[in-house]
Design goal:
Keywords: Signal. InterPro entries: Autotransporter_pectin_lyase_C. The longest helix is centred in the C-terminal third of the chain and has 4 residues. The chain has one helix and 31 strands. The chain is an all-beta fold and 257 residues long. It has a 16-stranded parallel sheet that branches. The protein has an eight-stranded parallel sheet with strand order 4-6-9-12-15-18-21-24, with no helix packed on it. Strands 27, 28, 29, 30 and 31 form a five-stranded antiparallel sheet that branches. The N terminus and C terminus are likely disordered. The chain starts with 7 loop residues before the first strand and ends with a strand.
Length: 257
Amino acid sequence: MKIPHFLRTQLILPGLSTLLVSAGAIAEELVCTHELGRVMVDNLRVPPNGICNLDGTRVEGTIKVEANATLNAQRISVIGNIQTENARQVSVRDRSRIGGSVQLKSGGGATISDSIIDSDLQYDSNSGQFQALWNDIGGNIQIFQNDGSIEIVRNVIDGNLQCKENTQVPFGGGNIVKGTKEDQCAQLLAYVSPAEPCAKSSATFGDGQLHIPRVSVAGHADVIDYRATLRYAPELSRNGSLVFELTDAGANLSQCD
């Protein structure tokens, strides 16, 4: 028997208009292919090819996201885990709270930002871009065997930061790791000092700053190579993007020799 999205009861009182009362709790497992707001459910499942948008929803059990499905969640509270397998896209953000783990496996991309996860954040064998931004993680971050780009910025991690066998080396910085940083994430906070000679290596990010070892600037007469340090500007960053600014050109730009 299907359980309706909202249980509604009509109360007819003498001399009064009909009142419509919505129950705040939905029992057992809810199949979500639509938008859901500030209600409470036992368990929630996003079926194959489904799109589920959650805002302020409380889940007493687990969220499961199935093949080619999409979950967009903000300000949610989940007592158990979020588990995905072969999902298309997953987004959990804006002060969401997960009592268990977030387990993302064999899918597309995912963004986990500005959230609290009491246990582990696991990203395993996925093909799309992954972002872990400004989270509090009670356990480990484990990122294994993924093909897309991996960005890890400003997380507080009570356990370990473990990155292994990813096609692209993870990048980011500003993370507080109380355990150990391992394998591909062991040097995540390393950066090129502006005092060093210009190099032809890639730009690096660490301590909230973007360090560009060499950038070519075309002038009226010739091309001059510079090195620069840009400040991460969280007040300008929106929708998962990172914005940097050069606050003092005189202090932060240095001409290459």
